[in-house]
Write a structure and sequence with these properties.
181 residues; 60s Ribosomal Protein L30, Chain: A; 6-stranded antiparallel β-sheet; mainly beta
Length: 181
Amino acid sequence: MKTPLALLSMAMVLAAGGCGGPARHNEAAIRPIRKGGTATMASAPEVYTVRGDFTRIVVVRVRRGMDLLDGLKKAVAQEKIRNAAILSGVGSLTSYRVHAVSNTTLPAENIFYEARGPQDLLNVNGYVMDGRVHAHIVFSDNQRGLGGHLEPGTTVFTFAIITLGVLPDGADLARFDEPGW
């Protein structure tokens, strides 16, 4: 079993290897095809990469009582971040609200989980894509661990510290989370 530090190191190496100037495609040539109930673009590559180096690292501290997602969005706006990798995050929570996929066919359906009570924030990861925060969190109490897509309603207890690796201006992650692309 890998240690948390080893896993974080691997994530940082993988994230650092995929940033920079992307290949472009011809939007006029995009034709939808049906796959699993949702249109998938015929021109969508099987694998699409963006390479380069981080231009800077931004460490964000979100204070007690603040909504975690709102805090991340404010930091992204304040720092004028267009594209970034969310490398890590730790802290604690008084409430959480996340969603996860609940099916295996497209279109994806979501199930939401929410509760109040003390939670350790074990990790935050994800991306900022064209200014949009797409974050996932992992957290635990004294009984179990849980994780999912970060939603409004996740409240910071003591603090949350999140590290962002900012990508160059030429990086284009805008379509990375489009299910049909």
